[in-house]
Specification:
Length: about 220
């Protein structure tokens, strides 16, 4: 069996175990579509903690698309300070607000084509809106999904775009809704970017990287 196929056979075990670890038996709540859309645009090339801080500041001042459409660009730039390229994002976000107000009654559309037509919205942003705001299965590929699935050995891809295409072929549809949520939680808690905590990992037995590290001298699994 090809190496990647060997690790792909464990996809259900990995995702079911991560779901039990991070979600328990609770249901996953949908989030406000406006906030998901704008926060994901803000998150582009911006660290997570800064995205949260900047987004909360902006939503306190402009809580919906209608108010955002009327916001002065200069003020938006100030509110976006702390994210990358606020001078680029400010007019884009204002234009998103205007389009939502004028074309969609202030609501966020729930189709991939309508979302992709918005300024500053690419496939990652559009898919995240579908998943997090509307509960529509889509592959939201961020740095966590890209990093962790490669470490698991499911494939060897160099970009999130390649990862999306690879996952489309191998990931059972029921997992499309949860994979981003699971990988974000796991990437923050265990599978860190620089030093993954393989000794604590609940899915190490089904992971190519985890199995390799377990063979290293001195490796000791956590109790």
């Amino acid at each position: 069996m090809e190496k990647a196929q060997h690790w792909q056979q464990y996809i259900p075990q990995v995702l079911d175990t991560l779901a039990g670890t991070y979600f328990g038996k609770g249901s996953v709540e949908l989030e406000d579509p406006y906030q998901v859309l704008i926060a994901t645009v803000i998150s582009q090339r911006t660290r997570e903690e800064q995205t949260t801080k900047v987004s909360n500041r902006l939503f306190a001042r402009y809580p919906d698309a209608t108010s955002l459409a009327d916001a002065p660009v200069a003020e938006l730039e100030k509110l976006l300070y702390g994210s990358s390229y606020p001078e680029v994002k400010a007019p884009r976000i204002k234009e998103i607000g205007r389009i939502l107000r004028d074309n969609f009654g202030g609501k966020v559309p729930n189709t991939i084509d309508e979302l992709l037509a918005l300024p500053g919205v690419g496939r990652k942003t559009a898919n995240c809106v579908l998943v997090y705001a509307f509960g529509i299965p889509a592959l939201c590929i961020d740095v966590h999904v890209h990093r962790i699935t490669n470490r698991l050995g499911w494939y060897q891809t160099k970009t999130p775009e390649q990862t999306e295409k690879a996952l489309e072929k191998i990931l059972p549809n029921p997992y499309w809704f949860t994979i981003n949520r699971l990988m974000v939680q796991h990437g923050r808690a265990i599978c860190l970017p620089s030093v993954p905590q393989c000794q604590k990992c609940p899915v190490r037995q089904w992971c190519e990287t985890g199995n390799a590290r377990a063979q290293e001298p001195g490796f000791k699994a956590a109790d």
